[in-house]
Predict the 3D structure of the following.
Amino acid sequence: MIRVEALSHKYSSQWAIKDINFEIKNNGVLGLLGSNGAGKSTTMNIICGVLNQTEGNVFINDINIKKDPERAKQHIGFLPQQAPLHVDLTVDEYLTHSAILRRVEPKKVRRAVEEAKDTCGIAHFSNRLIRNLSGGYQQRVGIAQAIVHDPGFVVFDEPTNGLDPIQILEVRKLIQRISQEKAVLMSTHVLSEVQMTCSNIHMIEHGKLVFAGSIENFNNQITPETLIATFNIIPDNFSSLEQIRGVNRIEKMSSDVLKIFYDGSSDVSQNIVKHSVDKGWSLSEISVERNSLESIFAKLSNREI
């Protein structure tokens, strides 16, 4: 559906993004992750035809968006970070206006509006002025305008920004429902959004793509550094554990839990179990402490892969 080839753009003499390459082949949610100023919005604006790139190409359904923007944009739905709402129109008036702008055939406009409202759960607000809707429902109207022409590819730029926790959950579910039939690209700098919504991640930092893969691969990108060992009773002297090859140091976390810092070797946990059995210690559980998304993000931000 989407192919991005050697995409680069600079403002004045500063490169905002450099040599970005990726593909989106089918439905599902791809998260475009990066800190503020990393180059996410520049990338999305180019993909949506809002901005002409300095170098490289973007193909939407095999159509070069720079060479044939009108035809390419027929396949794109876009919700920018600030939804382009006309708040003095009713929901029906605004979505009808959006459908006409998107060149939906006149005889199909009413049906397109009704289907977009049903998908986004806003049919009961058809005659309500948009300014009188809550922030969450205004965002739903913004999503509805992005899909009213039934595009195959939908782009959401920070779609949950500024929403309360309940509204965030509702918008997440809506995006996941849309992604069952369409390819979705969602940008965010909030790691929990990626974890809860996306199936794959592309991470941009300092204008370059530093990671591309699944959520599982993202979680496993950084080698684990700690083991959590739980004892029925922690031995009075556990310093002998530090003599095991690969163990760096040990911290006592509570009356029955030790945090063991190690070099990532796969046999360290087995050796700890054997050592505990030999010593007659009551080791009840040992597990790898998973890196938080925040720590992975921080480490990947400082190096390219």
